[in-house]
């Protein structure tokens, strides 16, 4: 291989037999008549056991930990949504029960503005938080798909049956829609 206009080129050596398996990458640089070779050994560690089609104990623990993390994210994000919606629904109910006449005309205008703005705020909060819940659910499903290999002996399953998984995800998937529909009806009144 001849040098390019910049005077450098890259070659890759054939894989060598190392324990653990490794490849050697040889990078040759030639500039102004000087050449430098850099040899780097890239180790590729294969942790899977081709004789067994099951998770290693370490992979099982990592998978469980990641699933627990995503479950917690779903819980936190759903809590954000419910808390924000409770606060906004309370503000809306208070503005509905405001006195007919106010001591100052400015209070009447502010109550009207609050009454009109709160449903839009509820919609926006739902629209902003719902995708974050869906992202955690998608990651959770990807992680659970990795657990279809056999489990190490004596360890509990990474997740329940398809029915219990679907039932468990009903809340995070459907609760935002309830709030969305409530606010949509109030906006369209």
Which key phrases capture this entry?
single chain; 189 residues; alpha+beta; three-stranded antiparallel β-sheet; 3 strands; 13% strand; disordered N terminus
Write up what this structure looks like.
Helix content is 58%, strand content 13%. The protein has 189 residues and is of the alpha+beta class. It has 2 domains: 36 residues; 132 residues, no CATH class. A hairpin with a 2-residue loop joins strand 2 and strand 3. Helix 1 packs antiparallel against helix 2, helix 1 packs parallel to helix 3 and helix 2 packs antiparallel against helix 3.
SSE map:
Layout: E1 8-12, E2 22-31, E3 34-43, H1 57-96, H2 105-146, H3 162-188
Helix pairs in contact: 1-2, 1-3, 2-3
């Amino acid at each position: 291989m001849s040098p390019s206009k910049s005077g450098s080129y890259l070659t890759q050596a054939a894989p060598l037999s190392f324990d653990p398996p490794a490849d050697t990458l040889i990078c040759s640089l030639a500039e102004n008549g000087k050449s430098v070779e850099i040899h780097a050994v890239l180790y590729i560690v294969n942790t899977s056991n081709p004789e067994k089609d099951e998770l290693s104990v370490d992979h099982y623990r990592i998978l469980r930990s990641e699933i627990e993390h995503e479950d917690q994210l779903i819980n936190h994000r759903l809590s954000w949504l419910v808390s924000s919606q409770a606060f906004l629904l309370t503000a809306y109910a208070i503005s509905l029960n405001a006195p007919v006449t106010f001591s100052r005309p400015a209070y009447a205008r502010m109550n009207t503005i609050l009454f009109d703005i709160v449903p839009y705020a509820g919609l926006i909060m739902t629209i902003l938080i719902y995708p974050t819940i869906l992202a955690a659910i998608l990651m959770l499903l990807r992680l659970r798909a990795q657990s279809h290999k056999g489990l190490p002996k004596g360890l509990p399953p990474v997740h329940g049956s398809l029915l219990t998984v679907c039932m468990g995800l009903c809340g995070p998937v459907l609760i935002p829609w309830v709030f969305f529909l409530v606010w949509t009806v109030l906006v369209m009144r």
